[in-house]
Amino acid sequence: MSERPDLTIVMPTLEEAAGLAVLIPRIKAVLGTLGVRGEILIVDGGSQDGTAAVATSHGAIVMRQKGRGFGSAVREGIAAAHAPWVGLLDADGSHDPGEFARFWGKRGDAELIIGSRYCRGGSADMPILRQILSRALNMVTRRVLDLPVRESSSGFRLYDRAAAMAVGSAAEDFSVQQDLLVGILAAGGRVIELPIHYAPRVGGASKANAWKLLPAYMRLLWRLKKQRGGWRTEAGLFAALAVALVTGLTGITGGLPGVARLRALPPEIRSSSDFSTKLAEQWHKLYAEIERSHAEMRPDEPNTSVVGRVTVPAGWSFPPPPLINSARSLLTQTVNPDEKKSFIILGRMRPWRFEFEPLYAQYGGAFIYPLGAVLAAAHVVRLVVVTADLAHYLSVPGDMARLYLVGRLYTLFFHLALVWMLFELGRALSGRGTGTAAALLWALVPVAVVNSHVLKPHPVAAFWLVTAAYCALRAVEEGRWIDYLLCGLCAGAAAGGNLAASYAIGLPVLARLIRREGPWGTVLGACAAGVGVIVVTNPFLVFAPKHFAWELMVYSPSSFSLRTRGLVAFVTRVVPEEIGIGLGSLAALGILRGLFAGSQRRLLSILIFGGGVLVLGRFSSFAASTSSMRLHYAGVALAVVLAADLIAALPRPMRAILLAAALAETGARASAYLLNLHREAGAFSTKTHAADWIDAHIPGGANVGLLRFPEPAHTPNFRWDRMRLTIFEAPKDLAGVALPEWIVVSERGWAALDPTFQARYATAAAFPAATFLGLRPGDDSFFSNAGMLVLQRGASR
After folding, report:
1. Closest by CA position to 633, among listed 471, 446, 484, 453
2. Which of 123, 353, 517, 783 lies at a 20 to 30 A Cα distance from 271?
3. What DSSP line would sit under 188-213, residue for residue?
4. Could you tell me which of 225, 227, 218 has the C-alpha nearest to residue 184?
5. At residue 87, what are phi and psi to the nearest 5 degrees?
6. Which of the two residues, 132 and 346, has the higher pLDDT score?
7. DSSP-assigned letter for residue 624
């Protein structure tokens, strides 16, 4: 060529004759329209379909590839190019060469211009599975390498040849795209992306193999991370995850069933096979009665709590009827009574018969079914024993304990994932500092610390709702259909795991209203996809609603009311106890600021406030209890992000002071819970100490009063058969009979009784919960290492 070309078009090929026959004439036409001198360079990897002949016949230059793989072809093509600018595109016809006109006009703005399917205005005709995988890989790459472009894998590019040659890449596969991109950025080069449409290939077959590329892709990320600041840039995220992991594992084995609890029973029945068999039979009878009450829409299930007064004489050799459920709870329940519900739900299912209908719908299928799959997998690798025979767990309570432990680890996994997602959300709002603060604060918030130890759906549903909020923020920013769709799917997973989060289904609509532009069909489709997830994960609510009519109409009838007393208690007691006064105040200010601080923050504020009002109104009778915070779990997590975002907006000295103060308060409150979780997991919790004292100091045959049937949550495991137990619902139930000489009760239970009755007893022994800097657990449903009292009847005080 007599004159040096302005632009070299490079196309790596392997069996692409059909595509080149169409593509080369189109490229020539584009070069003519641009009025630039150009050359077309084909780097062929040994095609056998006439690729070289077709290229030559159309005036292109053909060179035989020396190395192996797509990466070598790209590098050799750039090295052989004669022009200062090198255009790269696929030879299969999926890229429109006409787009080079826009690229050429922008060449003064960057050393690399990328044609992107995934930036605003881009599109692609691809199979949905391939598109999801491609988007996911690009999202991970963008996040890990902190790239300024949405698509790093695109093969449609315009390079400043000198900048590309300076990189010195040695990549042989498709990772050459990221290699050159990161190398140009590392040298201070500018990179921009322009939207393109990606069309189906003209002919031939794709050479990409995801399974072969994935290992190389992972190695690429690890290698290129060093050029993007190294892993030290993730120090904040890693620190938050480490804190969350340490707090989550602290005391995670506490309160599990085990043989040590058998001390409450007569020695002669502790190893009896008849004992476990009879307890299992009684459970099946209770189970059948529960199902019958649901079918008959009776207002109450079989009552397992004390009504009025029940007296159990001493000296029995097998648990009498009033203590059957208590004896079974020793071997099958944890210290948290609600944890057993997951296994009651799973216990109804018989997967080998394709029977998956649950007994209750309170814990949705998006939580329960994955939990069942995790337990089944753990059974396959012999970490746990999964059997429909309850008698087995009554005989081997350690196997029951391992089921709970695996379930708690399942919850902990989602807790860690939620911490990560809050970091990403904070980072999207105002940078890594905000993300780090949000993740650290959440890792230390008492409500999060407690629930990371409990087998319940709240951390799982919260992860999906926060992820849906993240996708909604992206939809507000760019309006892409994929972000709306992912928002709807994640919202459906949140509601499908915990129906209290059903308000999340409207999140795509909220994003569209705030954005104020875009097709409503996409938004409504995203909401429909979310509803579809709910139906798929909870099919029996749709196809067998009568089976759950009791739960939806009797147990939790629909109603909505906002009661002033409940709202006041929620603000003045629940929030300070479960979040902290300082962080709670910052969160409230962050929500208020968010309403006026940009569309993304406004979306989060409206979601938190609107969702909170709906939950408070729907469960108004529950609002004054600290347990109600679990229903606001995801909203609280999002509020923590806005609190961190507010802190980040303040001047540096004030920012540091407020963050340190918030971390100190939440950390101190969390430490009180963690200390008691640790004690419960140890050899001597308050209940163990109390049981030792009772067996040593209260004589056999003594009349001992209990406010509940004995259970792990609130009763020491003293020898039940040695005492005459008087179990009463309230002091009025003791009218006309001699008062029990002794009362064994939790501190919280005793504080709730009438002072006149309290005056009849004096404290004989106290076993208080552990405190940290004077702080003690105040959560109504926190039973680990709960304070216990042994009181003796005495003169009025």
Report:
1. 446
2. 783
3. T--EEEEE-EEPPPSSS-----HHHH
4. 227
5. -95, 140
6. 346
7. T
For 543-557, the DSSP string reads H-GGGGHIIIIIIS-
Task: For residue 34, give the 3-state DSSP assignment.
Answer: helix
3-state secondary structure of 750: helix
If pLDDT is split at 50, 70 and 90, which confidence band does 555 have?
low
Q: Residue 160: left (phi > 0), alpha (psi -120 to 50), or beta?
A: beta
671 vs 637: CA distance, rounded Å: 19
CA distance 764 to 690: 11
Q: Say if CB 532 and CB 365 are below 8 A apart.
A: no
Neighbours of 36 (CB within 10 A): 15
Strand 788-793 and strand 112-116: the pairing is unpaired
Beta carbons of 491 and 466 less than 8 angstroms apart:
no
Two tokens, residue 708: 């509940």
In whole angstroms, what is the distance from residue 725 CA to residue 164 CA? 84
As given in the structure block, the two tokens for residue 615 are 């939950």
Reading the block at residue 626, the tokens are 């600290």
Helix/strand/coil for 596: coil
Q: Which of 304, 142, 161 is nearest to 221 (CA)?
A: 142
What are φ and ψ of residue 66, in 5° steps?
A: -90, -45
**Distance (Å) of CA 17 to CA 50, 51, 58, 290, 320:** 6, 4, 11, 71, 86
Using CA atoms, how far residue 110 sits from 89, 118, 228, 235, in Å, is: 18, 19, 19, 31
Query: pLDDT at residue 549 above 80?
Result: no
* Cβ atoms of residues 501 and 461 within 8 Å: yes
How does pLDDT run across 701-716, given as a tens digit for each residue? Answer: 999 999 999 999 999 9
Q: Give the C-alpha separation, 488 to 510, whole Å.
A: 11
| Confidence check: pLDDT of 672 > 80 | yes
Residue 19 amino acid letter: G
Burial 149-180 (b: 16+ CB within 10 A, else e): bbbbbbbbbbbbbebbbebebebbbbbbbbbb
Q: How far apart are CA 120 and CA 123, in angstroms?
A: 9
b (16+ CB within 10 A) / e for 54-80: bbeebebbbeebeeebbbbbbbbbbee
Residues with Cβ within 8 Å of residue 791, at least 6 apart in sequence: 742, 743, 744, 745, 750, 761, 762, 763, 764
| DSSP reduced 3-state for 706 | strand
3-class DSSP state for residue 723? coil
Separation CA 768–CA 140 (nearest Å): 49
Show the tokens assigned to 482: 């994929």
pLDDT tens for residues 723-771? Answer: 999 999 999 999 989 999 999 999 999 999 999 999 999 999 999 999 9
**Element (H or E) spanning 540, and its range?**
helix 539-543
**pLDDT tens digits along 254-289:** 999 988 899 999 988 876 778 888 888 888 888 778
Nearest to 588 by CA among 615, 612, 565: 612
Pairing of strands 61-64, 38-44: parallel
Residue 735 corresponds to which tokens in the numbers above?
Answer: 């009218």
Confidence of residue 334 (pLDDT cuts 50, 70, 90): very high
Q: How many CA atoms lie within 13 A of 215 on its CB side?
A: 2
Average pLDDT over residues 371-395: 92
